[in-house]
Amino acid sequence: MSPRAGGDRLASYRSKRDFDATREPRGSSGTPEGGAGRRFVVQRHRASRLHYDLRLEMGGVLASWAVPKGPTLDPDARRLAVHVEDHPLEYFDFEGVIDPGLYGAGDVIVWDWGTWRPHPPDTDPVDAVDNGELHFDLDGVKLQGRFVLHRRGEGDQWILVHKHDGAAVAGWDAEEHPTSVRSGRTNDEVAANPQESWLPPTEAELGALDELGNGGTWRVGGDAVRLSNLDKVLFPGRGDDEPITKRAFVRYLTTVGPHLLPYLSGRPVNRHRFPDGVAEAGFWAKAVPASAPAWLTRWHDPDAKAGRTSDYIVADRIATLAYLANEAAVELHPWTARIEDVTRPTWALCDIDPGESSSFDDVLVLARLHRVALERLGLEARPKVTGKRGVQIWIPIAPRYDFDETRAWVQALSRAVGAVVPELVSWAWRVDERGGLARLDYTQNSSSHTLVAPFSARPAPGAPVSVPLEWDELDDPGLRPDTWTIRTVADRLARIGDPLRPLIGLAQELPPIAPARTRVTTAAATVAR
Ligand code: MN
């Protein structure tokens, strides 16, 4: 149970589960230490008995306690917490249904998540757990402040309490805060729509994909997808790496699905297809093919003009990603507006598009200036490397502004940023008039323009991937815009997760951009360099 106990730290976790049947993650053995970031998650698990699973990242696993009444901010409440088996880091964002008859059968939501640190800071948390007492601070969406876990006697029973501090709230009850911080859904909603729970293929499903030969019908997540030419090379290798087949691309899109689908679900998706591999020219596709399976979710545009695309694919489940991979839809471009109202985007996007003479350092200067400006405006946002040469800034917004308003706002932001470093930026429309300088392309905020989704691949050797970042990662001297590929992005997700994900659905208003409020000072510009 202790993360430092000899042998495989996840042996107990694995011995209780059948990974051919459950959609819970197997977890990779020997997962490296998770760097500086210590994450925590609390899952509300409606099993034979309701409980909340408190999991703290330490020693390369999630040390776990089952808390029947749930954690509380009430400093006068003592909660029973049963120390249970360590879980793999991949369990961090697990949300979905564990089928009847399996261990832990029931529904699970990500009730809270965030970061934690031991107190005092130099505490070795693994030792502290071994010794039966851990003091720690939580910085989550719901849970904040100092907690103490202490073991009662020699068994697995511990007590969880909240200290009397600034975050304490008398009478606070977890059951009064019932929704998922991951999806906004309740346990009931997750149980009612397990198809939308975006769980990756099981080991058995992946095994069946490997055994499919060059094509055939693959069953994944309850749907059947016809796959063809699975051994065909879609991407040349980068350097000396092996080329990447369509089978590997199907595996990538379906396994990264739980991280990709939150950006695609509920939106039409435009596809950049490369059926002959990315070494050949691709083409854009918007319409649902006539041969598409009946279960595929479609959106019909009631305002489509005659002869224009009227029916679009909405990717809302793992099998759809298998379908898209099979049609070699290498780049997935979701609309920034949702189908409930396709005239009002939920993302404002800043596209830092490097010119021929722009260095990546120039791009980073521009990205950091966006950070300064957005922080001054009090807006949450994250940068994202494109997988090619550029960086984009994704800003979640309330669906109350039309495209013209959103574009005008981003244009004002871009002008404020560009004014600090006029030597790096061109406002010319035509590429050949930009003198090789970067463009801050606010025109992407329109109903007819889209940007590549987080975790989508790009059509280049090695299959690079567009990846959201923490702002501080812009200062990593090793950062490159095409660092991650479909072979390496899973490692990153297991280590640090997706920094953009907690911002999905954040209904931010666009504050007025007045020069006095937004001016990015010379000092800030110096910092940015
Ligand atoms: Mn549980």
Per-chain topology:
Blueprint: H1 11-15, E1 39-46, E2 50-58, E3 61-67, E4 79-87, E5 96-98, E6 106-118, H2 125-130, E7 133-140, E8 144-151, E9 157-162, H3 187-192, H4 203-210, E10 216-220, E11 223-227, E12 233-235, E13 244-245, H5 246-255, H6 257-264, E14 269-273, E15 283-285, E16 298-300, E17 311-313, H7 318-326, E18 329-334, E19 347-353, H8 360-376, E20 382-385, E21 391-396, H9 403-420, E22 439-440, E23 467-468, H10 489-496, H11 515-518, H12 522-528
Antiparallel strand pairs: 1-2, 1-6, 2-3, 3-4, 4-9, 5-6, 6-7, 7-8, 8-9, 10-11, 12-13, 14-15, 14-18, 16-17, 19-21, 19-22, 20-21, 20-23
Helix pairs in contact: 5-7, 8-9
The structure holds manganese (II) ion (MN).
Q: Main attributes?
A:
disordered N terminus, single chain, 529 residues, globular, disordered C terminus, alpha+beta, 5-stranded antiparallel sheet
Your description of this structure?
20% of the residues lie in helices and 24% in strands. It has 529 residues and is α+β, with helices and mostly antiparallel strands. The radius of gyration is 24 Å and the shape is globular. Residues 1-7, 29-36 and 525-529 have low confidence and may be disordered. Manganese (II) ion (MN) binds at residues 45, 47, 51, 53, 66, 104.
